[in-house]
Amino acid sequence: MKLPRFDFSSWSIPRTAWIQVEVTTRCNAACVYCPHTIYREAWQDRLLSLAAFRRLWPAMKKTRLVHLQGWGEPFLHPDFFSLAALARQAGCQVGTTTNGMLLDEGKLRQALASGMDFIAFSLAGWGEHHDRVRPGTSFRKIVACIQELNRLKEQAGAATPQIHLAYLLLNSGLPDLEKLPHILPGLGVNQVVISTLDFVPSRELADERLLSAGLSADDELQARLAQVAAAAARLGVTVQYRLNPPGKGALLCPEHAHQAFYLTADGGVSPCVFTNLPVSRATYMGREGELPYQPLVFGNLLEQELGDIWRRKAYVHFRRTFFTGRLATPCRQCLRL
Question: Nearest CA to 119 among 90, 81, 89, 169?
């Protein structure tokens, strides 16, 4: 009896927690803390091709989430909604993070039609402070955009895309922290993710990193964050945050670099967004002071199959370091660990 043919090729495709996809490195903002602004003289503009994205199809079918955002404003990509639609067809969740400045009514209607699961709006404080540290964006316009998205969702009877806030907590923005629950009512926000300045591209920005001086200060900040989260929870909004005081790091990577990966706009496959910035001849502030920035790339999807890249000896060894404790150089320097 002739046995049916079985396709073993899918066995080589990794099953991942999520895939982050950099659709472009271009941006219409000039945030004072962003590598795009600090490294502007050495910055490389990249735009993800549909050909490269289509090569992700087998992997998208075996992941929970595809997040369409990297070191740029995703809605600057002319085919953004084609990318989102393709990912949705693969059966995974699809989301993005945006500064909101390009989302007019037409694009918001396209977002509803695309079936996207969520859109996260970037904030770094409230009102004037946000506008000061994120030139090229407007807190007022972001709020208006969120309100318009809510109106269109209500009009269409749609539950998605959910509205998230990607809130960057800078040292200079600490006075704004307690305002967060008071801004949320009426905005239809489902989730707020509070992060800190985890990649410091210049020595001048070191003071914006939330590295407190002692245990009491750490405990005070943790208590403030817990109070904000509790107040938001009473409004039905989930607030997530993760803060590692100095010397209290763990080998649990928040980017899940051992079971996720980052696809850059030029097809590169890297562990996370912090390990592949489109720059050369740059320095950054790591745990051991100012260091030369060196991207960590294990292959290119335009040249190799993803399964072959994932199984490369160097990449397998890298993922194992999170269990052996002998971390690779960029991870040893990472402020998130």
Answer: 81
- pLDDT above 70 covers what percent of the chain? 92
Report the pLDDT value the prediction gives residue 2, as an integer from 0 to 100: 41
| pLDDT tens-place string over residues 242-285 | 775 544 444 678 888 889 999 999 999 999 999 999 998 899 99
Cβ atoms 32, 135 nearer than 8 A: yes
Tokens of 211: 């590295």
Rounded distance between C-alpha atoms, residue 337 and residue 334, angstroms: 6
Q: How far apart are CA 80 and CA 69, in angstroms?
A: 10
Helix-helix angle 139-156:105-114, to 10 degrees: 50
Mean pLDDT of the chain: 89
* Secondary structure class of 205 (helix, strand, coil): helix
Report which of 158, 85, 72 is spatially closest to residue 122, judged by C-alpha positions.
72
pTM of the entire structure?
0.91
The pLDDT of residue 213 is 45
Q: How confident is the model at residue 81 (pLDDT cuts 50, 70, 90)?
A: very high
What is the rounded CA–CA span in Å between residue 262 and residue 66? 10
Task: Looking at the chain, list the stretches that DSSP marks H as alpha helix, in order from N- to C-terminal side.
Answer: 35-38, 50-54, 57-60, 80-89, 105-114, 127-133, 139-156, 180-183, 215-233, 306-310, 313-324, 329-333
Q: Report the alpha-carbon distance of residue 98 to residue 96 in Å, rounded.
A: 7
Distances (CA, A) of 194 to 20, 180, 332: 18, 11, 23
- Rounded to 5 degrees, φ, ψ at 262 are -120, 120
